[in-house]
UniProtKB/TrEMBL annotation, chains A, B:
UniProt name for this protein: GntR family transcriptional regulator
CDD domains for the chain: WHTH_GntR
Domain of life: Bacteria
Region (Disordered): 1-24, 257-283
Residue ranges constituting the HTH gntR-type domain according to the UniProt record: 26-93
Keywords from the named record: DNA-binding, Transcription, Transcription regulation
Regions of compositional bias (Basic and acidic residues) in chain numbering: 274-283
Matches recorded under InterPro entries: Bact_HTH_transcr_reg, Chorismate_lyase_/UTRA_dom_sf, Tscrpt_reg_HTH_GntR, UTRA, WH-like_DNA-bd_sf, WH_DNA-bd_sf
Composition bias type Acidic residues, residue spans: 264-273
Length: 283, 283
């Protein structure tokens, strides 16, 4: 009943106009949802149930209505579900994938379930100009194009579009594309480890076609990832465009503080320039 | 007119049933959109215009209908706009923010425009249990809560919720929160650089309240970022929950290939355990 506890987590409600109350409750609900979402993702509630309302009210020092609004936010995102006589059940928690080291999906997530790839396309094609440039393919050259829908425990996780340099990709056309990560297959085929990769991650509302393939409503939030992977000598060989369900994966990284100056202006340089520069030597 | 060029980028359309044509065109349109989206994001089209249809048809070796469908995908995402007599205009391109080093928004993006923060809340509060645990705040202790809407060149970019250890946060309540990154303010206040941070990035469809604040339609794709920043001695002092417009920012990282074995099982450990463990010593 009291929407303005003196020790609440956020907004000094006791000093504001009554008409701002709704806004303040929405702010608080968002703050509560934010913390709960991360607790869920990091596996904090081993029982698969959220704490009951009374506990949440006490823990966050907010009103019952604010807690309900926070749970509604998580319900709308498909993270939790209210079940009569049970409570608030965690429906899904995203798996965490590192952004520190270069790893394939099955390498990282294989311990959580079975990764299966539905191979939609795997053949030799003439690449679009931009793809040819990034993979340093000469005019008239070809690449191998592989498209796979990736499932973890039978539920779609991502749709992966991959362009491979011909000499790297052609031996893979006969390999176990349904069962294995491309990184592992490439390394087995070339006899050594891959080098480094440049990764860019966007968040977009998915187009209807992609969302249908991924078995989620059109417009659902996706990560779209571009990953350009290089051999140890710097040669770019693997250009991927991944569309990953936002409700099934989170990225994780450990960052170290560096001098602010070193950052500025890095973005004015195009990725292609960078890739070309790196081709000369290892990092 | 010809939807199945022999050297096209994707699907061997010449060998499939007529009823699969629509699906194949949608696949190809998605592939084209994927490449164009990344070209736009990396600043490939300096004129602010996409190449004309004829050029795109030749470059991607697809039909006119496929190119139009690809452009429709980008239009629906708000990336481009069709203007009569002009062509396909790039409406917005996301800024790239590194996920390699720990930097504040203004440090990274300040060269691209003016970052302004609208301070919505800045005061001392009793933290929710989870926040207290992550910041190692003793029972009954307090933290400083700061909520800021961040704008780049006058357009909302992110909504940042920050919980700071009291001794770190209190001196900042009188500082220039509207004009500066928290990292810079903390370092000025403590007299030395911050240490490291653990970052987790999710993609979600934004709730109506957050989207209204960020000036985008409800349900638009957002990055939600949790970032726990530590002092050089490992003490966690700054826990942030950032909600970033997906259409305005992309994350970027350089990864190095490491032995696959070193990855497995890292996710079974909770972030709290990790933070607690790290508190003992520097990385």
């Amino acid at each position: 009943m009291n929407d303005a506890p003196p020790t609440g987590p956020a907004t000094p409600a006791d000093s504001v106009e009554p008409q701002s109350r709704r806004r303040i409750r929405a702010d608080r609900a968002r703050q509560v949802a934010e913390v709960l979402r991360r607790q869920i993702a990091s596996g904090a509630f081993a029982s698969g149930l959220l704490p009951d309302e009374r506990t949440l009210i006490a823990d966050f020092a907010v009103s019952r209505n604010t807690v309900r609004e926070a749970l509604a936010v998580l319900r709308d995102e498909g993270v939790v579900e209210r079940r009569q006589g049970v409570g608030t059940v965690i429906v899904r928690r995203p798996y965490e994938h590192t952004l520190e080291q270069l790893t394939g999906l099955a390498e990282t997530l294989g311990t959580h379930g079975e990764v299966i790839n539905r191979v939609r396309v795997a053949h030799v094609v003439r690449p679009p100009g931009e793809v040819a440039r990034k993979l340093h393919v000469p005019d008239g050259g070809h690449v191998v194009y592989i498209e796979r829908l990736r499932l973890l425990d039978g539920v779609p996780l991502s749709l992966d579009l991959t362009y491979l340099a011909a000499d790297i990709g052609e031996p893979l056309l006969a390999a176990d594309l349904a069962g294995r990560d491309l990184f592992g297959l490439i390394e087995q085929s070339t006899g050594g480890p891959l080098g480094s990769a440049s990764v860019t991650v966007h968040a977009v509302g998915g187009d209807p076609h992609t969302c249908a393939l991924l078995d989620i409503p059109a417009g659902s939030a996706l990560f779209t990832v571009e990953r350009l992977t290089r051999m140890p000598d710097g040669r770019p060989v693997d250009l991927e465009f991944l569309r990953i369900r936002g409700d099934r994966l989170a990225f994780r990284a450990e960052l170290v503080r560096a001098a602010p100056e070193s950052e500025s202006g890095s973005e004015s340089e195009s990725e292609y320039d960078e890739a070309a520069r790196r081709t000369g030597g290892e990092r």
